[in-house]
Amino acid sequence: MIDFQPSEEQIALRDRARKFALEEVLPVSKQYDRTGEFPREVIEKAFKTGLMNLGIPKKYGGPGYGSMESVLVVEEMAAACAGMTTSIYVNDLGAEPIILMGTDAQKRKFLSPLTEELRFICFATSEPGMGSDVAGIQATYEREGDQYVLNGNKFFITNGNVADLYVIFARKKGKKRHQGITAFVVPRGSEGLSTGKPLEKLGHRASDTAAIILRNVRIPAENVIGGEGNGFFLAMLTFMHTRPAIGAMATGLSRSAMEYAINYAKQREAFEEKISSFQTIQQMVADMYARIEAMRLLTWKSAWLLDHGQDANLASSCAKLVGSEDAMRIATDALQIYGGRGYLERYAIAKLFRDAKLYQIYEGTSQVQRYVISRYLFKEYKPVMTGF
Predict the structure, then answer these.
(1) pLDDT by residue (tens digit) across 47-59?
(2) Catalytic positions
C-alpha cells in the first residue's frame, strides 16, 4: 500500500517547525544574511524547541526521529532561511557517522552531550583541493601506539568555527584513494587544531563556513568511528542518509520563491494589467508548483526507503539532483517575474536566488549525482523491454 498522508504526529511536528520558522527565523533572516553574524540566539531557541539533533536515538537523549520527520522539519525551516537551516541541521550530518557505525560507548560519549545543551558537531571531508571526490582526501594520519596523529587541511566546513566536535576524514599515510580512509572524532581545543576566519560567501551567509588546520593533532584510538580503513564507505553511507534533507531544503526554498513570485505578480501592473493575468507568468508559476511537488515526492520516497531499512542511495541522489537543479531554476524564474526589482537586495527573492546555488554544489555536486545515477543505469538497471 502506498500512503502519502503523514501521521498526526508528523503533521504536529511539521506545524511546530513551521511556526518556529515564521516567528523566529523569518523575521531576522535578512539581518543575519546582511551581517553574516552567526545566529546563535536563534539556534539556541531551535534547540530548546526540540528542532535540532533530530536523528539522535532516544537511547542517547535525542528525539529519535526518522528521515521522514527530518525532511518535514527541514523543508519548513529552509523556507524561512537557507543559511540558518544549514547551520542548524549540519549537526545531523556530523552526528550521522556516529549513529551509523559508532559503538555504544562512542554514542554515549559523543551524542548524548549534544542533547543536553547547545553544542555543535561538524562533518569534515572537503579540502582546499577536493570536495565531491571523497577518495581524493589528502589529509593524512599515522598511528603511534594507542594514538593517531592527523595532519592536513579541511575547507568549506559548515560550523567549523563554532563546533565542539569535528568528524574528520583522513587517509593513512602511504595509501592512495579509497584505501585507508578513516573517520575520527576530534574535540575542539585539541592541540594542533585551529580554524580560519569565516568564509565570505555568495549565499547562506548566516551559516558559518571555515577552514580547519590540522598540525600533528593527536587523537586516541577510541575516537576512530567505524574501524580503521572504513572511512570512505562510512562517508558514502552518511551521504545516503543526509542527501534527502538537501532535497527538503531545496523544496522549502523553492516554495518560498514561488509564493513571493505569485504575490508580486498579483500586485505588479504592466500594460494596464496585473501581470498575473499574463499567460507567460501563469505558465511559469504552474511549472514552479509542479516541480516543487515532484521534488517533494522524490524526497519523501528516499526518506521512506531509509525509514524502512532499504537501500536509498539511488533515490537520495535523485532527490538531491532534482531538488537542487529545480530550486535554482525556480529561484531564477521567480526573480525574472520580479524583473529589475528582483535584482535589488531589498527584495527577498534576491537572497533566495543567491542561496539556491549552493544546493547544486554541497554534499556532492549535481554532476556527481548524475554520475551515481548513470552508473546504476549502465551497470545495474534491468531493462523491461526486449528485442534490442
Answers:
(1) 999 999 999 999 9
(2) 363
What's at 11, amino acid-wise? I
The whole-model pTM stands at: 0.95
**CATH architecture group of domain 8-119:** Orthogonal Bundle (1.10)
Three cell numbers at 335? 526573480
How far apart are alpha carbons 156 and 141 in whole angstroms? 20
SS3 60: helix
Domain spanning 232-379 has what CATH number? Answer: 1.20.140.10
The pLDDT tens digits for 210-251 are: 999 999 999 999 999 999 999 999 999 999 999 999 999 999
Which DSSP category does 188 fall into? Answer: T
Asked if residues 82 and 201 have their Cβ atoms less than 8 Å apart, the reply is no
Cα dist from 347 to 79, 248, 277, 341, whole Å: 15, 23, 22, 7
- Write down the CATH number for the domain with range 122-229: 2.40.110.10
How far is Cα 108 from Cα 110, in angstroms, rounded to an integer?
6
